[in-house]
UniProtKB/TrEMBL annotation:
<dbReference type="Pfam" id="PF12706">
    <property type="entry name" value="Lactamase_B_2"/>
</dbReference>
<protein>
    <submittedName>
        <fullName>Beta-lactamase domain protein</fullName>
    </submittedName>
</protein>
<feature type="domain" description="Metallo-beta-lactamase">
    <location>
        <begin position="25"/>
        <end position="218"/>
    </location>
</feature>
<dbReference type="InterPro" id="IPR036866">
    <property type="entry name" value="RibonucZ/Hydroxyglut_hydro"/>
</dbReference>
<dbReference type="InterPro" id="IPR001279">
    <property type="entry name" value="Metallo-B-lactamas"/>
</dbReference>
């Protein structure tokens, strides 16, 4: 499988000359299997450009959208995803069960509420809602997807995507802390990601920032590296970049994360996710 980052930013889009390298769009990752089956994780603002590319290909769009949770930065792009206005589009929405209802609320509810002029049931695409992952693995062609509850205000879900003997884990908006409830402790996430080829993890904050931001549902690059080492993953990509973080600061975070890996004598390839980057797993 391969994946492409369409949005790597957290909390709010951050366009501008300081965010060109790592990107300003919010959470959206496309995953395509060897057989060509398509998963999209999150509908942040990055999904708009993905939609344009899919429509330009001229082929009917068929995909499974996995929503991590219903915070704005993870659903904001859906109304601007061009395939939802085409009747030959087929979308199954799964992931965090609550997130689907949050997503639908963005649209006009015909009672004078919502945040967009079009109603959800006016969209021409065939959009289905399933709650498969909350109840066990989801099979999408040759891909198997498992979910885990993340440690985040109002809850949400992270995902493990497996294809034959390859495996990637996506955990954003996840606060790694030892006093979290059972099932959401660092060791639970390490167990979930054990031996995976790639871990993508939230690293919004610096260690010196986290004290004031405990309980906001995010982690530092140090905590993300520690999790990757504990899980024995081969590669780590830092994700959900703080909107205030410049490209220069992001490169500093990458350098510090690599120093940390070296200090541990570990063999872990670590980088920060860049918008537009394609990764083969
Ligand atoms: Zn977020
Ligand atoms: Zn969130």
């Amino acid at each position: 499988m391969y994946l492409k980052f369409w949005g790597t930013r957290g909390s709010i889009p951050a366009p501008g000359s300081d965010t060109v390298e790592f990107g300003g769009n919010t959470s959206c990752v496309e995953i395509v299997s060897e057989q060509g089956r398509r998963l999209v994780i999150d509908a942040g603002t990055g999904i708009r450009a993905l939609g344009d590319e899919l429509v330009q290909s001229g082929r009917p769009v068929r995909l499974t959208l996995l929503l991590t949770h219903t915070h704005w930065d993870h659903i904001l792009g859906m109304a601007f995803f061009r395939p939802v206005y085409l009747d030959n589009t087929d979308i199954t929405i799964d992931g965090c069960p609550k997130a689907f209802w949050g997503l639908a609320k963005v649209f006009d509810d015909r009672k004078g509420n919502g945040y967009f002029p079009v109603a959800f049931d006016e969209l021409k695409a065939n959009i289905r809602h399933s709650e498969r992952i909350a109840n066990g693995p989801l099979q999408v062609g040759d891909l198997t997807v498992e979910g885990i509850e993340i440690n985040h205000p109002q809850g949400g879900m992270g995902f493990k995507v497996m294809e034959h003997n390859r495996c990637m884990v996506f955990l954003t908006d996840n606060e790694l802390r030892s006093d979290a409830p059972v099932g959401r402790r660092p060791q639970d996430f390490a167990h979930f990601a054990r031996g995976c080829d790639l871990l993508i993890h939230d690293a919004q904050y610096l260690p010196e920032e986290i004290a004031d931001r405990r309980g906001w549902g995010h982690s530092t690059y140090v905590e993300a590296v520690e999790l990757a080492l504990q899980a024995g993953t081969r590669r780590l990509l830092l994700f959900h970049h703080d909107p205030a973080r410049t490209d220069h600061q992001m490169r500093e975070i990458e350098a510090k994360a690599r120093e940390l890996v070296k200090a541990n004598g570990a063999d872990l390839d670590v980088a920060a996710a860049r918008e537009g980057e394609v990764i083969y797993v």
